[in-house]
Write a structure and sequence with these properties.
Elements lengths: L1 E2 L5 H13 L5 H4 L1 H11 L4 E4 L5 H15 L4 E3 L11 H5 L5 E5 L12 E4 L7 H11 L7 E5 L7 H8 L6 E3 L1 E2 L21 E2 L12 E5 L4 H9 L5 E5 L2 E4 L6 H15 L2 E6 L7 H14 L3 E5 L6 H4 L7 E5 L16 E2 L1 H8 L33 E2 L6 E2 L14 E4 L2 E5 L1 H8 L24 E2 L2 E2 L3 H10 L1
Helix pairs in contact: 3-4, 9-12, 10-12
Length: 473
């Protein structure tokens, strides 16, 4: 996090003047005036500018342009704590910021503390070609359609909507959960449900199952999150101005998730990885997962390691599976590099909630699993025994009496206590290497002597150095 006033303005002056004339860095692309207007309207004193890695090369120039209009300093955020699409409230709080301006792609999850202004990227789309293909695909003008779009095409949505709304009376436009430089797509109704950063209001006497979903954008994580979370009839997305069908049921990702749910059922020790510290209600989601695991006699540990990676989580071999509380667009659920299964909060309920069954509607937004959420169901644990599909062992028996409330197992090493608690302590005792040992009373007592002196490359008392000195003489 670097204050922009530490940058050498003299070195950048010629470059900035050149960029103002070009299309790379200009007021229209980054909406400098709207940024300043948003800051002044809220009376903010310390504002952070958050950039993804792809825009860090332009961050200094953008910050200086905003400072010239604002007449005060701003701060630059790079190398975010958990992910570039999420608001990094942790880094912003290091300097006591009271607002964040986010540049680039965003997941649009609601934040916990700080107000946020989004500068959405602007990609071009052939509007007329899209309209033609849309009308060819949906020949029935009375078809019920939900229109979604990537943040990259938010700048073109107003034109598309004005053309289609009169031709398709049952077309519903979704809005983005943010305050942004594209005011038309911002959510104005605070009571609307928010799923994966999108909001909408359906027509009277209709439900989501009555609609077709259309996504203006590529086949990416945003589309996958929306399509698996929202149970519309079908899903279409745009590829080179063509409408393609997104097959949720044929997604190989879902088949792999079913296997990981079985791994979670077999696990005795579960790690809960908090991979976000800025998304609203993440603490409530953490508490909910801990309560579910407690009722199922699963020992749980909570980890907060910033951006998770295989090397960090490999330090905890006693954990059988990890549950990750993260942004719906996090790549961690697609990775095969981790040594242990990485599961979502939704999969915890699939494994242990008798009220929830396995379907193709997969909720990646953990906020929707909480009371009042779109996918909330009451938790009903099952006490019936079943057979593991992986190990063929019987589960949910009384042979595992994991004491969650009473930490009554102590693992000792020599004269020092190492760990308290059954799962971690027993695992430590069974390891071949348990750490450094003191071996008190086993070594002879010796008088301290003078050690080596000099540089490690050649100590003073080494024979090689002594021979070299004799040769020089």
């Amino acid at each position: 996090m670097t204050p922009s006033n530490t940058i050498n303005c003299q070195q950048l002056e010629d470059s900035i003047n050149q960029d103002i004339l070009s299309s790379t860095v200009n007021c229209d692309k980054y909406s400098y005036e709207k940024c300043v207007e948003w800051i002044n309207a809220r009376g903010l004193e310390k504002v952070c500018l958050q950039f993804p890695d792809s825009l860090l090369s332009e961050s200094a120039k953008i910050a200086i342009n905003i400072e010239e209009l604002l007449k005060k300093n701003v701060y630059i955020l790079g190398d975010t704590t958990c992910g570039s699409c999420c608001i990094d409230e942790v880094a912003a709080n290091h300097i006591g910021a009271d607002g964040v301006i986010h540049f680039g792609h965003a997941c649009l999850n609601p934040t916990s503390r700080l107000p946020v202004f989004h500068i959405l990227p602007k990609n071009n789309i052939n509007i007329q070609a899209f309209i033609d293909k849309f009308q060819q695909f949906f020949t029935d003008n009375n078809e019920k359609i939900l229109l979604f779009y990537s943040v990259y095409y938010a700048n073109s949505i107003e034109t598309i909507w004005n053309i289609l709304k009169d031709k398709y009376p049952n077309l519903v436009l979704t809005t983005l959960n943010c305050k942004s430089n594209v005011d038309f797509v911002d959510t104005k109704n605070a009571t609307s449900a928010i799923i994966s950063g999108r909001s909408w209001i359906l027509n009277d006497d209709t439900c989501l199952e009555d609609y077709h979903g259309v996504f203006i954008g590529d086949n990416d994580k945003t589309l996958a999150s929306l399509a698996m979370s929202i149970p519309t009839k079908t899903w279409q997305y745009t590829v080179d101005d063509e409408l393609k069908t997104f097959e949720v049921t044929k997604n190989p990702w879902l088949r792999r998730r079913r296997f990981l749910v079985e791994k979670l059922k077999d696990a005795n020790t579960v790690g809960i990885v908090v991979a976000t510290l800025g998304i609203k209600d993440y603490m409530q989601a953490l508490s909910n997962i801990k309560n579910i695991l407690k009722q199922k006699n699963k020992k749980s540990y909570v980890f907060s390691v910033g951006k998770p990676n295989p090397s960090k989580l490999a330090n905890f071999p006693e954990v059988d599976a990890f549950v990750v509380i993260a942004c719906p667009e996090n790549d961690i659920f697609d990775s095969k590099d981790y040594y242990k299964p990485m599961l979502t909060p939704f999969e915890v309920e699939l494994a242990f909630n008798n009220s929830r069954s396995f379907t193709t509607n997969y909720c990646l937004d953990f906020r929707q699993l909480l009371p009042g959420g779109f996918n909330y169901v009451e938790f009903k644990p099952t006490d019936d025994s079943d057979v593991s599909m992986l190990s063929n062992e019987i589960r949910n028996t009384n042979k595992i009496t994991c004491t969650i409330d009473k930490m009554d197992t102590v693992a000792c090493k020599a004269d020092g206590t190492v760990a308290i608690g059954k799962s971690g302590a027993n695992f430590l005792l069974n390891r071949s290497w348990q750490g450094l040992e003191q071996k008190l009373g086993e070594n002879n007592i010796e008088i301290a002597t003078k050690g080596r002196s000099g540089l490690p490359t050649s100590y003073d008392n080494e024979p090689v150095k002594n021979n070299n000195q004799l040769t020089d003489k």
